Every structure is written in structure tokens, then in C-alpha cells.
């Protein structure tokens, strides 16, 4: 048991954060008597609704865990980087949502068509409120997953993995706007935060510097 603990104990901080994130987000989603700031940009009105993008939107729920899972077993150094990247962004998102409650009014009142994709979008809208939007975690975590792929020597060396990750990342980012889950503002905020965190985690390698100083 001790051998397995020493080998896999690096999952503990992420697991603890995951519990905190889910509880915190649940409380945010179920607040009452809240005055919301409406998130909107003029360009949002020109982005058409396209229900087919619900597919890459839902693939996000497999994409990010798959990258993290691979790094967890294969690349401890980049697992730590990716975990710090993701958790820091999600923590900032929670703080922003706590002190700047926000909402969007982009969703359609009625679906223009009836098919399996519009049904999926309708079900998604029923389970996910149009509140607590920026920065878009779908966008931010997709960037984080792709950055992790590109910084892993094995994965970045496989052309099909590199291109597949990029295509999926871009598709997920576009999906947030085409199925009216997010405003362009949320996407831009995610890109800005992603750029700052990329510099912090990968360029300046604060995780590696911390481990060097502490010997962990």
C-alpha cells in the first residue's frame, strides 16, 4: 500500500481541489436574490446558432480528463504543470463568479429545427444555467489540455495526436459560441488568462522552480 501511495500520491491535491470546486460551483449556481451583470458583445449577435457543435462541446468532458490521465501515468513533470494551470484558472473563475455574478441572454427561445443535436443542446441548457460564464472554463481548460499535449515529448512527437488535439481544441472553443453557451467576451477572457498562465507555468516554469527549491 505504501508503495502505491508514494507512486500515485500526486493525485491528492487535484482530487481535493476537485471536491472544493464542485461544492463551490454548486453553491454559486444555486444562489438566490443575486444581481447579475449581463455579459454581451455586439459580435455575439452575428454568430449563428449551429447545434452540431454540441458534439465537440460534450467531447470536452473526455478530452481534458484523458490528457490529465495520460500525464498522470506517463509524465509527472507535465502532469504537475497541467494541474497547476487548470486549477489556478478554475480558482480564478470561482472567485470572479463569486464577486461579479454574471449572466448571458444568448440562448434561443425555440429551436429552429428538431433533431438529435438540438435535443442534446436543449438538455444541456436545462442542466447548465446561463450564469457564471467568464472566463469560459471550457475554453480555458481546452487550451490547457492542448498546451500539455504540445509540451509532452511523446505526444508532441506524434503528428496525428498533435493535429487531433489542435482540431478538437479549436472545435470546442468554437462550440461555446455556436451553441450559445458563451459570449465572445468569455472566450477572450479565457485566452488572456490562458496566455498569462502559459507564460507562468511553461515559459517561466514556476512549478519546476518550486520543486527544485523544495526538493519535491
TrEMBL record:
The keyword Protein transport does not apply. The chain crosses the membrane at residues 12-28, 54-73, 82-103, 160-179, 186-204. Signal peptide: none annotated. Keywords: Membrane, Transmembrane, Transmembrane helix. The keyword Transmembrane applies. InterPro entries: PAP2/HPO_sf. It comes from the Bacteria. This is Phosphatase PAP2 family protein.
Amino acid at each position: 500500500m505504501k508503495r502505491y501511495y508514494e507512486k500515485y500520491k500526486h493525485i491528492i491535491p487535484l482530487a481535493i481541489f476537485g471536491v472544493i470546486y464542485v461544492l463551490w460551483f454548486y453553491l454559486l449556481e444555486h444562489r438566490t436574490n443575486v444581481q447579475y451583470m449581463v455579459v454581451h458583445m455586439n459580435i455575439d449577435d452575428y454568430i449563428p446558432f449551429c447545434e452540431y457543435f454540441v458534439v465537440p462541446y460534450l467531447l470536452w468532458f473526455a478530452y481534458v480528463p484523458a490528457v490529465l490521465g495520460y500525464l498522470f501515468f506517463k509524465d509527472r513533470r507535465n502532469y504537475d504543470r497541467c494541474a497547476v494551470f487548470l486549477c489556478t484558472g478554475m480558482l480564478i473563475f470561482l472567485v470572479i463568479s463569486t464577486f461579479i455574478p454574471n449572466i448571458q441572454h444568448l440562448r434561443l427561445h425555440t429551436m429552429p429545427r428538431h433533431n438529435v443535436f438540438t435535443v442534446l443542446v436543449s438538455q444541456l441548457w436545462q442542466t447548465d444555467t446561463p450564469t457564471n460564464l467568464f472566463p469560459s472554463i471550457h475554453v480555458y481548460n481546452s487550451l490547457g489540455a492542448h498546451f500539455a499535449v504540445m509540451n509532452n515529448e511523446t505526444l508532441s512527437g506524434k503528428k496525428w495526436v498533435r493535429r487531433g488535439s489542435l482540431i478538437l481544441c479549436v472545435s470546442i472553443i468554437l462550440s461555446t459560441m455556436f451553441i450559445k453557451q458563451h459570449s465572445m467576451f468569455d472566450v477572450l477572457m479565457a485566452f488572456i488568462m490562458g496566455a498569462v498562465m502559459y507564460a507562468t507555468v511553461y515559459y517561466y516554469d514556476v512549478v519546476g522552480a518550486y520543486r527544485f527549491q523544495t526538493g519535491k
